[in-house]
Design goal:
alpha/beta; 13 helices; about 50% helix
Amino acid sequence: MLTPVLVILAFAIVAVHVVIVFGAVASFLRETGLVEFESEVERGRISVVVPARDEEQLLPRLLDSLERQNTNRFELVLVNDRSGDRTAEIMESFRQRFPSRVQIVTLTDEPDLQNPKQRALAAGVAAATGDLLLMTDADCYIPVAWVRTMSRPFRNAHVGLVFGPVIPGVKGLERGICWLDHFQAFDQLFRFQYTAAAAGLKAPAGGFGNNMAVRREALRDAGGFEGLRYSVTEDAQLIAQMRDSGTWDIQAIRRRGARVIPAPEADMRTLFRQNLRWNSGGFFAPDFKTRASYALVMGYLFVSTLVLPFSALYPAVALPALGSFVSMLTLGVVAGALNTPGASYWKWLLPNVLFAMVFYSFVTVMTIFRIPVSWKGRTLSPKGR
């Protein structure tokens, strides 16, 4: 009697991922219709906002990539959020080289909001003069055409927010690549398929705050960063509130010029903390749509993986886990096909999918128990105070 139920569950999760694949392809096809960016943006119309706290090691890498942009018609707003290292010195040195295009916002007091990055972004946006706001993080390296590529979709007056993929890598770092780096590249590209698919289905439910562009008017309509409901993932909450306003289109963009390269996490412990923050943001999102969609996928994966050891006693129990594996592998193949990440992606695809099933399940358990999230030395409650 149990076997038919397990078969139905396995087919159900595969069916859900067929819809996700359809959404990812729809998002890709929408992007291919973008008109090429033919003219330079007006000076002062675009602002790049970068929050940073204690980023003296990686900030120079980002600033170098910003200096290499194939347009200089943007302003840069650097937010020094209570740094105790040489971050302020590095920012000031860069500002002195480009005094007309760079400004620094310095925060010294503890934030009232529990999410300090949200406060830093709000301060940066308030100081910025652009109608279009591009955001990335201090630990990222951006491609030479990033500003122009992320700006391109806004030629459509209905587009309010655009997010692109982040693919961790060692570019600009003085070290070689290891298996954990390969997994993180897979992990974030894999997650991007869910967010891009949701946007392609006109039901956006997440994105990447270190690779995002938003029209100021649309941000204002969503309440601004200072008006977001509490979440440990402020980028996803911004997208949720903008989606619920029903006024603006939200798009994903995959082009090479939009692929941001953050530095990989150094070890499994810090990778776990990062994933715990993302999971907590999904499971405890203030809006029901985001919570429900995230719990559906991650909850199924967790349960199907948890009961897998019992398949030795009852083989049919393995069917839900098989459904999860087929779904994740299929989405991983689609991610590779639509994003051309390179040969190493395909080499590590199968072991990365298998490891992800176990790793995501473990993180989900910790999330369910509401383990506090650690970010930049500050402990954040998954659901707020």
